[in-house]
Amino acid sequence: MTIQEISVSNNQKKTIQKALKKSKALIEEENGDLVLDQESYFEWCDDTGKYPLEDIMPDQDFDDDAQYIVFV
Length: 72
What we know:
Layout: E1 3-6, H1 10-19, E2 26-28, E3 34-37, H2 38-48, H3 52-56, E4 68-71
Parallel strand pairs: 1-4
Antiparallel strand pairs: 2-3, 3-4
C-alpha cells in the first residue's frame, strides 16, 4: 500500500470535504486527517465529470501510484 501525505490548511480541508461530500472516496479520521482512496476518487470523477482536487490544489503534484492520499 502506498500513501502520499499532503499538508493542507484547515480552510483547504473544509473545501475538500465540501467538494467531495457526495463521494465515498473521502474518509475523515478522528484526528482530523482526511484520507482519500484514489481509485474511488477517480471512479467518482469519471462518473461526475468533475475533478475538484485538481481545481482546489492546482499546483500540487499528486502521486498517481499512491493508493491513498492523506491530507494532514
